[in-house]
Amino acid sequence: MTGAPLLVENRTDRVVATLNRPEKRNAIDQEMIDALHSLCADLEAQPRTLIITGGAEVFAAGADIAQLRDRRAADARRAINATAFIRIAELPMPVIAAISGYALGGGAELAYAADLRIGSRTLRMGNPETGLGIIAAAGATWRLPEIVGHARASELLLTGRILDADDALAWGLVSSIHPADALLDAAHAMADRIAANDPLATMHTKRALRAPRHEHPGIERDLQAELFESDEKHRRMTEFLERRARRTDPPRTAPPSPIEEDR
User: Fold this and answer.
1) Cβ neighbours for 184, distance < 8 A, ≥ 6 positions apart
2) What's the number of CA atoms in the CB half-sphere (13 Å) around residue 50?
3) How many CA atoms within 13 Å lie on the side-chain side of 123?
4) Is 106 annotated in the active site?
5) Is 218 a catalytic residue?
6) Which of 47, 62, 140, 220: disulfide with 105, CB 3.0–4.6 Å?
7) What integer pLDDT is reported at residue 13 of this predicted model?
């Protein structure tokens, strides 16, 4: 549906979701939030890697200001955007944000909810909410310190500074920068590497990464115990040992002797 706020491409091992409000610079409104919830329901039922992207010039310029202006205290307590972004962050399989152009306010907070973030040279990311008389309340105040540290998170949130691609990479907001026309290919290459691994081990790794500190090291023990009993672990390790054995077998430079053939 070309008029849908979210364009969804389903593949066997991944889903590509493209924010699709170009006339509003992909501003996140209630309809887009509803579409994100629907997407999450599908991925909770059938776990796959999710790639979230926007247009070449803008990922998401923020939440829809026209809707925000009319929201009241009761709306704030419903945590409309925050609830959707938490659900995205808690999806079983990894979420990759491929960010080109502006990712501001709620758009930046959507990107912060991803496990992996990559950007283009045109990336501009930040949280200017205080200039509009509100706070970044959809995850930035607690996700950003986890991503970039408290000092840098404080600078971004208290000053409203917008980072360019080089600064976003240096600060650790994104892990790599690519030409705009190669950004989605880079996201797919990352998804390919994820797809080559055991899905259950990937999901358990994400669970351990997302778990609060007080759950460690117990959560690793429990997750690893489950994996140690899996058929897939045995199969993959057997294949690894067989490949290594083939690589380390000395090459034959002459046919076997009759004595060798008799053994």
Assistant:
1) 16, 51, 53, 98
2) 31
3) 31
4) yes
5) no
6) 62
7) 97
User: Count of CB atoms within 10 A of residue 89's CB?
Assistant: 17
Secondary structure tally for the chain: helices H, strands E: 13, 10
Is residue 147 helix, strand or coil?
helix
Q: What is the pLDDT of residue 263?
A: 40
242 is catalytic: no
Torsion of CA 117, 103, 169, 210, to 10 degrees: -40
Furthest CA-CA distance within the chain:
91
Catalytic residue among 55, 106, 126, 139: 106
Q: Which two tokens stand for residue 235?
A: 């199969």
Q: Residue 162 and residue 184: Cα distance in Å, rounded?
A: 23
Question: Which entry of 129, 136, 187, 191 is annotated as an active-site residue?
Answer: 129
Mean pLDDT by 10 residues, the chain (263 residues): 86 98 94 97 98 94 87 92 97 98 97 98 97 95 97 98 98 98 98 98 97 96 98 97 87 52 42
Question: β-strands 124-126, 177-178: how paired?
Answer: unpaired
In the chain, the amino acid numbered 194 is I
Which domains are delineated in the chain?
6-195 (3.90.226.10), 199-248 (no CATH)
* pLDDT for residue 55: 86
Question: Which of 63, 82, 108, 140 is flagged as catalytic?
Answer: 63
Distance CA 10, CA 219 (A): 32
